[in-house]
Design brief:
Distance between the termini: 58 Å
Order of helices and strands: HEEEEHEEEEHEHHHHHHEHHHHEHE
Number of strands: 12
Strand order of the largest sheet: 1-2-3-4-5-6
Structural class: alpha+beta
Length: 373
Amino acid sequence: MDLFETMLEDSDITIISEAYSEGQDNVAVIYQSKVNKLSIRFVDYIIVNNGYAIRLSFWSLESLFDNQVDEFTEIAQKTVFYVKSAKDDWVPLWADIQVSLEQEAPVAQDDYKYMFFAVKGKTNTVYLMGSIHVGNNSFYPFPEKIETAFANTPNIVVEVNTDSKENSEKIKDIDSYGYLPNHQTLKDVLTKDLYNALETNLSSYSVPMERVNRFKPWLVAASLTNLKMMSLGYVADSGTEKYFLAKAGDKKIFELESFEEQIKIFNSIDANLFLAVTLLSLSSMESQMETLVESWKNQDMEELEAIVLEGIEDDDQQDYFDKLYFNRNIAMTEKIKSYLGQNENYFVIVGAGHLVGEKGILALLEKAGYTVE
C-alpha cells in the first residue's frame, strides 16, 4: 500500500484502526486529530488500482462518530475522490459521472442580486458585499457583475482576516481567550435554567458538558451555532469571506476589526444574555436558514432584517444587539468612509446582518451623504 502510506506521510493524525483487504489493495482506516481541542474522527475507504485510488473520506466529532459511521457507506455511494499518486493533487468528482481530470466550470447564478452594493466616493468606488459566514459550494460562483468587480479591485476588506498567519495562530491559542478565568465553570456563571437548557442542547449532539465546561459562554454559543450549521449542510470553509480570500492572489487585504477587538466585544456582552439569545435562535434556525439564504440571494432587505434582528423589540436583548451589531456598525462605517476618496477601489466583505435596518451600514452611509447603488 505504498500509495496509502504516501497519502498519510507527514500528517498529524493518529490512526485508530486499519482493515486491509486480503489482496492489500483496499483499506478502511479510522483515525483522529484535534481542531481547537475538539477531537475529530475520520474514516477513509481507499481502493487502489494501477497506481490510482478512489478515496471515500468522512469526518465527524468523536462524540458523534459511532452514531454516524454506519451512515457513511450510504453517503460514500454519492461522493468520491479521484486521487493521483501525489497526495496534494486530489481532484473532487461525483461518483455518477465519467472519471476525468477535467472539471466542468460551475455556472454563475446571474438571476440573483445578492447583498451587493456600490458606494460612490469622489474619486473611487467601495463595493459592499454582504456575507454569510457559513455556506456550501452551491452558492458559487457569484454573478458576473460581482465577480468582475472583485477581480478588478486591488484591495479587499474583511471583518477579520482569519486566513492570515498571525490570526490563525491566535485562533488556535484558545487558552488565551476562550476559557473562563479563575478556574470557573459554566455552572458558576450561568443561571440554573440556562445551564440545564445548554446541557440539553449539547446532548442532542452527543457532546458532554465536561467538554465545554470551562469555555466562555460566547464560545459555547459559537460552537453550538457551528454544530447546528454543519448539521444543516453549511460550513465556515464555504462562507463568503473564505470564497473571496481564496481568490485574493496578490490583492491587499485590510480588516474592519482586529481579532482582539472582536474578542473584547464578545466578552463585554452579558454571558447569560449571549447564550440565551443563541439558544433561542437555534430553535428556529432550521426553519429559517433556507429563508435567510434566499433573502440574501434576492437582496430582500426587509426579510433579512426580520431574521437577523429577531427579538430586537425585547428590552432585555438591547445590550446584545447594541454591542454585537449597532455599535460595530458605526465603527465599521467610519472605516469604510476612510476608504472612500482614495485613489483605488475597495471590495468590502461584511456580514449581511450589518447592512440591514435603519442602524445598518448602508443607512449610515446614506445619512453621511454617500450614494449607495
